[in-house]
Specification:
The chain has helices at 5-31, 38-45, 49-52, 59-82, 88-104, 110-118, 123-150, 164-179, 188-203. Helix 5 (88-104) runs antiparallel to helix 7. It is an all-alpha fold. The chain folds into 2 domains: 1-57, Orthogonal Bundle (Arc Repressor Mutant, subunit A); 59-203, Tetracycline Repressor, domain 2.
């Protein structure tokens, strides 16, 4: 039986923000922030230019919401894992696996490249990404390192570590997938295991 027209229109309206954000990631990835217009995103999403302004008042707002859409659910999962009880080593491993499975192995990996490419020209985008993503991720990872030291799992000198080397291999993997994968494919599972094993061996007493 055909779906009632009103129900179809309602469902279509509810799905529209998601469709806009999907289109935004694709076009921002292809054209960059400066080269993408709201009307381009609207056209790709199959809506009018006027309609997109009902959801997003500016290109900057759309870019911010695109980051939240693609990355914040994974950050919330990382933070939730960090609240669990258990060995710090096990929790840190699970957090890094979420990063690889959901931020490196998916289309979300386009976002760091966008920030790197556009951050110097649009510093407010870099500041937003640092505040909303990197700082939150670092805080969560830092708390697990501190817990590991307190439990005697990790070396006390870990408290002096910077967080960038802990997180950066995942960023490098995302960029490699985008730039060099057609030349030298990256085996994400093997790379992830290498990163986590090296990190944990460095952390332990």
């Amino acid at each position: 039986m055909p779906e009632p027209e009103i129900a179809l229109k309602t469902r279509r309206k509810e799905e529209r923000p998601h469709e806009i954000l999907e289109s935004a990631l694709k076009l921002f990835s292809e054209k960059g922030f400066a080269g993408t217009r709201l009307e381009d995103v609207a056209r790709h999403a199959g809506i009018s230019k006027g309609t997109i302004y009902l959801y997003f008042k500016s290109k900057e707002e759309l870019f911010h919401e695109m980051i939240r859409h693609w990355i914040l659910p994974q950050l919330e999962e990382i933070e939730a894992i960090g609240q669990a009880q258990g060995p710090a080593e096990e929790i840190l491993r699970k957090q890094l696996e979420v990063i690889y499975d959901n931020l490196v192995a998916t289309e979300a990996r386009h976002i760091p490249r966008l920030i790197i490419g556009e951050g110097s020209r649009f510093p407010e985008l870099a500041e937003f990404y640092h505040r909303e993503v990197i700082s939150r991720c670092h805080r969560s990872l830092r708390s697990i390192l501190e817990r590991g030291v307190a439990r005697g799992e990790f070396r006390p000198s870990v408290l002096e570590w910077k967080l960038q080397p802990v997180f950066s291999p995942a960023l490098i993997a995302a960029l490699w997938k985008l730039i060099f994968d057609s030349i030298e494919p990256l085996q994400i599972d093997v790379y992830r295991k290498t990163h986590i094993d090296l990190l944990l061996h460095g952390l332990k007493k």
